[in-house]
Amino acid sequence: IMVAGSAPAQIVVTGAQAAADRPVGKALFWTGFGGAVAWLAVATAMAAGGRELHWPAIGASAALLVVVVATVAALVRRARVAVPPPPEAYPEVWGRWLYPLAAAAVAVVAVALPVLILRGLFQLLGQTAVVDAINTGWAAFSDSDPSVLWRVGLGAVTLVLAWRLAPRQRLAEAVALGAFAILVLGDAAGAVPALAFLRDRTTTALGLLAALVALAAAALLAATRRLDRARAVGVMTVLLLAVLYPHRNLIENPAGALLALTPALLLVLGLAWRVFTEAQVTYGSSPRYPRSTRVLLFLANTLLATTGVAYVSLARATGTDVDVSPWGELGDTVLGDPLYVAGLVAGLWLLLRPAPGRGKPAGAVGEPGRVAGTPAVGEP
User: Fold this and answer.
1) Residue 146: its H or E element
2) Ranges assigned E (strand) in the chain
3) Angle between helix 55-79 and 171-189 (nearest 10)
4) Which of 348, 65, 378 lies closest to 234 in space, CA to CA?
5) pLDDT tens digits, 55-102
6) Residue 14 and residue 162: Cα distance in Å, rounded?
7) Around 379, how many Cα atoms within 13 Å sit in the side-chain half-sphere?
């Protein structure tokens, strides 16, 4: 369910990069650019002062964005390359980590199930002393806020994993995992009273800050006639991500938004997206984890998730304890936001320091003299 909930983020990141990198005429490009800027201005004006763009949200988002940029810079340096992979590289590699990270993120919840079963069993057997001991231990465990400690451990392990993957020609995975680790650690740090503002970060504020940096850099580059094709793609990618990501559920399911359908439909479409476009875990094979086992596990997970969504819909159990929609929303936040942030940072990097071969070293957008194989914006 969590993996299905992250599908809109993948759709937005993939679509934004594809739209920005598409070779079009100069007039059409600048029309789209102007439309994106106008959309961003209107959305910012409408959200200003609200939950998405109040000052604590902007401050928290700025702090986390700076830390993510520093982390990506460290990973790029460790990989001994000049630039991180472009935004289109992340959705595919991120799909390989969704199931392990989703399982790890909620593993602490699995502790409750055997404890509750044991407590119920001893209650049936009349073992009051054992039940009281279990209640005491569970209360102590709950009071220590285990979810925060678990997030700290998960973020630290993921950050170490990203650091180890960077020099092994798996930089795209390392960058995505690094963004995931920083966001998870930021949420955990919000438990400290002095850092409580970190929990106010929003994706709208993250996108706005990245877009403002991109527009300022683009204006400076245009003034010095260094806004080439690659840099134009970078600024357009950041703008599209900033304006599209807050509306990711509408993009994934426009009919559902128009007809006011339940969140369960979004989960069904997310599950269908995963089945038709991913399942990378089933591509490989090993003696301890053969392909047949991978396929059966993937199908069983999909069937279980679909059954849960169907039960909630047919039983009209939305909003009850058996409603699985909150798990989809959790997946959207925990697994979708890191992909979005990685795309923003990669887009900014593409603007400020494009990869060799993606654009010409100097000259305005659409001028002659581009690198072979990289069409200028001014060409049809």
Assistant:
1) helix 146-165
2) none
3) 150
4) 348
5) 888 999 999 999 999 999 999 999 999 889 988 889 888 888 888 898
6) 22
7) 13
